[in-house]
Design goal:
- The protein has 457 residues and is an alpha+beta fold.
- Among the domains are: 84 residues, Penicillin-binding protein 2a (Domain 2); 88 residues, 3-Layer(aba) Sandwich (Beta-lactamase), CATH 3.40.710.
- It has 14 helices and 18 strands.
- The strands form six sheets. A five-stranded mixed beta sheet has the order 3-2-1-4-14, with no helix packed on it.
- Helix 6 runs antiparallel to helix 14, helix 8 crosses helix 10 and helix 8 packs across helix 13.
- The model has no long low-confidence stretch (mean pLDDT 91).
- The chain binds zinc ion (ZN).
- The site of zinc ion (ZN) has 7 residues, from helix 10.
Length: 457
């Protein structure tokens, strides 16, 4: 009896294990099969990483960026277009994981859950995708980067459409490089779309965050007179400024990018308030864009001493920003405090994003105040003729990176113009001064994108 009883239990356990295993298997197929199918080790895929018969990728004007012909995956005929759109479009490999050809590969190849890729070609049509980017604007930004490594992004803060997104270094998807020890430095970070995944010290562009925190928390801060002698001891150690600015208001402090004003403010505001505002404005946050998550910017002063806290207020210490995150912050300021999430896909795909793509970042009142300050920055410091046809609000940054290297050059901002509602972020690695290096890149990219929105209206 005991023996039979034991066997019954054993059979029951085996049966349950099989049922459980089958359940798990089916579950994993449902959830993961479209990812598995894309892997290059899948022998059923004919060449070109499975893209040999995949759908076409167009830019917003119907320019073909990638297509398949005679079992080959091919790209735009113009080599500069191939270079400038690589990180958005992708290549045959999955190396650039955030690229459309990586994240939407099963869609492009016509993979279907029940039939996989097993249907005859006549029934298994790869889907086409139209992107929001404009190849010409990407080319303009690519040329403007002038061989520097970095990232440029411009998006429409009313619709979310990304018009220009370029990351360098880049390569030709028709002729991917073999990266060896010798050419490693030339291709440093080449598989990363720096717009979405790059992280850099924000330097003075972070003063917008410290400014927001001061406006929110210090009554009458706009009436205060600050004083800069070129350096100041905070927390027992010096914080230095590029100039001796003398007496200045908060607004002059931003437009002249005085370190002392904002270092002092960060110290006065304290860790909690600074962290709260930084979080509100998108630091320590990852945004989902077409199924890819942006790199989180970093603002963490939990272990900072008083001097570190002061430096954090001017975007140094351990502060890091992601270019797309900075563009989103600017877009929110431009749009009365509300972000419309950037989007690189115009049509051809059911959007992966769930829920609302709009979110309030800051109050409309604070957004308008920041707008006033960032506008003053352009009219009173950079000069309003910097952007020939646009009314721009902006902030530059020159982020020290140490090791005897040139600083990273930043410019972030947006246009107020109703027919060109565009926000941007530009980072030029080791480019030197923000204004002189990132400035011209921002101007080129913004003016190129303004032509697009104005032609559309
Ligand atoms: Zn100063």
């Amino acid at each position: 009896m005991t023996k039979i009883h034991f066997r019954t239990i054993l059979v029951l356990i085996i049966a349950l294990s099989v049922i459980f295993g089958m359940g798990l298997f089916v579950y994993r197929i449902i959830v993961h099969s479209d990812e598995w199918i894309q892997h290059t080790y899948n022998g059923h895929l004919a060449g070109n990483g499975g893209l040999a018969e995949a759908g076409i990728i167009y830019d917003r004007n119907g320019k073909v960026l990638a297509y398949s012909e005679n079992k080959l995956r091919l790209y735009n005929v113009d080599d500069i277009t191939r270079l400038s759109t690589l990180h958005v479009v992708g290549d045959d490999s999955m190396n650039i994981s955030s690229a459309i050809q990586s994240s939407y590969r099963s869609h492009l190849t016509g993979y279907q859950f029940f039939f996989g890729l097993g249907l005859p070609k006549s029934l298994r049509r790869g889907h086409d995708i139209t992107l929001t980017i404009d190849a010409d604007a990407c080319n303009t930004a690519y040329y403007a980067l002038d061989g520097y490594n970095g990232a440029v992004v411009v998006y429409n803060y009313k619709t979310g459409e990304v018009l220009c997104s370029v990351s360098t270094p880049t390569y030709d998807p028709l002729n991917p490089p073999e990266i060896t020890e010798e050419n490693e430095s030339e291709y440093d970070g080449v598989y990363v779309d720096k717009v979405l995944a790059g992280r850099y010290a924000p330097g003075s562009t972070f003063k917008v965050v410290t400014l927001a925190c001061a406006l929110e928390n210090i009554p009458d801060v706009e009436q205060e007179i600050f004083s800069c002698n070129g350096s100041k001891k905070i927390g027992g150690k010096e914080v230095t400024c590029m100039h001796v600015h003398g007496d200045l208001t908060l607004k002059e402090g931003l437009s002249q990018s005085c370190n002392i004003v904002f270092a002092e403010l960060a110290e006065r505001l304290g860790k909690d308030k600074m962290t709260k505002t930084a979080n509100e404005l998108g630091f320590n946050v990852s945004y989902e864009i077409n199924g890819t998550y942006t790199a989180k910017g970093n603002y963490n002063v939990s272990k900072a001493n008083t001097n570190d806290l002061a430096w954090s207020g001017i975007g140094q210490y351990t502060v890091e920003a992601n270019p797309m995150q900075m563009a989103i912050m600017c877009g929110a300021i431009a749009n009365d405090g509300v972000i419309v999430m950037p989007d690189e896909i115009r049509s051809g795909v059911t959007k992966l994003q769930a829920g609302s793509t709009q979110k309030r970042l800051i109050s409309a009142e604070l957004a308008r105040k920041l707008d006033e300050y960032m506008r003053y920055d352009v009219t009173n410091y950079y000069g309003d003729d910097l952007f020939p046809t646009l009314t721009v609000c902006a902030k530059t940054g020159t982020a020290e990176v140490g090791e005897g290297k040139e600083p990273h050059a930043w410019m972030i901002g947006y246009a107020q113009d109703e027919d060109a509602p565009l926000a941007f972020a530009v980072i030029v690695e080791n480019g030197g001064y923000g204004y002189s290096t990132a400035g011209p890149v921002a101007v080129s990219a913004m003016e190129a994108c303004a032509l697009i929105t104005r032609n559309a209206t």
